[in-house]
Design brief:
This protein has 14 helices and ten strands. It is α/β, with parallel strands linked by helices. It has one domain: TIM Barrel. It has a ten-stranded mixed sheet, with helices on one face. The chain is globular, with a radius of gyration of 20 Å. Bound molecules: iron/sulfur cluster and FE2/S2 (inorganic) cluster (FES). FE2/S2 (inorganic) cluster (FES) binds next to helix 13.
């Protein structure tokens, strides 16, 4: 029986494919990537978009992997537009020519979120594991030339966090309307590279100052969002604004997840949209109801005054670090497992960081 207090989802992350021309060490996609031959067809995706709109989804985020790797992306964007959804394209920019950007704008893309790895071309290419930096700059030009609003998104970590101001200068120069600097979250492949990616405490303190200076320098310019590193905080992030609260994710095979990283929770009874309607999965499935609200919480969250604000932190992080998705997020200073996070922090020294392992390509 559906809980009458559960609201319709606002947004859906549409992972069209796991294929990607980049090999980022912080990739939050699962260790096992979906093969091309297992991806849903255009017809199946069209039906999912229709179901999502009927369910109440108003924001559709086309993502991946690299969504441009799917030749049917323009058709699916057109379908989303016909349904009346706001369409966001989340892309590496590789392959986003001026013609493609114009076509996608005409079909219905409302906004583009473009990733950059660094301000320095050689380091950007090194972090991406591919020579893509120059193509990304061209893609940014293509987006603005097509009249689309642009968000530049940069994942921060030990190798690039010292260049925050140069990164912001570059993004402003590219015409970004919004700049998002997000410290790495350690999921999927990124967790494997955690020791190589974690910044030092001094780097983080310097980055906070750099963000402050960049905001002052570009006052009146693009919105600058900085997502803090929760391992270094005493309280966890309010992940996903609460489990099964506002967003859902559909993977390249049609698995429906309460958050993009939730396939890491191996105890979660994940359902697939090819076997059950999307609305039933949203309202009635065990996976979506498992950590909704506060009823599932144990102490210390159960009686904590902050439980309705941070929702007990992140379920995926709790599972990955403790093996129990219902545990308090170990990033919380009140968690009985906080020592797991402190141990990871203790490994971060001022000496050279370990080399990161680039992500390999999707198997054919
Ligand atoms: Fe949040 Fe739970 Fe920590 Fe309280 S104990 S601050 S609800 S994670
Ligand atoms: Fe899955 Fe936080 S990333 S709940």
């Amino acid at each position: 029986m559906a809980d009458p207090t559960v609201r319709a989802p606002l947004g859906m992350l549409i992972e069209l494919t796991h294929r990607c021309p980049l090999h980022c060490p912080y990739c939050s996609n699962p260790l096992e990537l979906v093969r091309r031959s297992e991806e849903l067809t255009r017809e199946q995706w069209s039906d999912i978009l229709t179901q999502a709109r009927e369910l109440g989804v108003v924001q559709m985020h086309f993502s991946g992997g690299e969504p441009l790797a799917r030749p049917d992306l323009p058709d699916l964007v057109g379908h989303a537009r016909q349904l009346g959804a706001y369409v966001n394209l989340v892309t590496s920019g590789v392959g986003l020519t001026a013609d493609r950007a114009r076509d996608l704008a005409e079909r219905g893309v409302d906004h583009v979120q473009l990733s950059l790895q660094d301000a320095d071309p050689a380091l950007g290419d090194e972090i991406a594991g591919a020579r893509v930096h120059a193509a990304k700059l061209k893609a940014a030009d293509a987006v603005t030339a097509a009249g689309l609003p642009l968000t530049v998104n940069v994942v921060l970590h030990r190798r690039n966090i010292d260049r925050v101001e140069r990164i912001v200068d570059l993004a402003v120069g590219l015409g970004a309307d919004r700049i998002e600097l997000a410290n790495t979250q350690y999921y999927g492949w990124g967790l494997r590279n955690r020791a190589a990616l974690m910044p030092t405490r001094d780097q983080l303190a310097a980055a906070h100052q750099a963000v402050r200076r960049a905001r002052a320098k570009h006052e009146g310019g693009p919105e600058l969002v900085y997502v803090a590193a929760d391992y270094y905080d005493d309280r966890p992030k309010p992940c996903m604004d609460g489990w099964g609260n506002t967003q859902l994710t559909v993977t390249p095979t049609g698995d429906v997840l309460p958050c993009p990283a939730a396939s890491a929770i191996t105890t979660l009874p994940v359902e697939n949209v090819l076997r059950r309607p999307l609305s039933e999965i949203w309202y009635d499935s065990k996976a979506f109801n498992a950590y909704r609200g506060t009823g599932w919480m144990r102490d210390p969250c159960r009686t904590c005054p902050e439980r309705n604000t941070d929702h007990g932190g992140c379920r995926c992080q709790a599972f990955q670090l403790t093996g129990d998705a219902a545990a308090t997020d170990p990033a919380c200073g009140l968690s009985p497992h906080r020592s797991l996070v402190d141990a990871a922090l203790a490994e971060v020294t001022d000496g050279p960081a370990p080399a990161f392992v680039l992500r390999g390509p999707v198997a054919p």
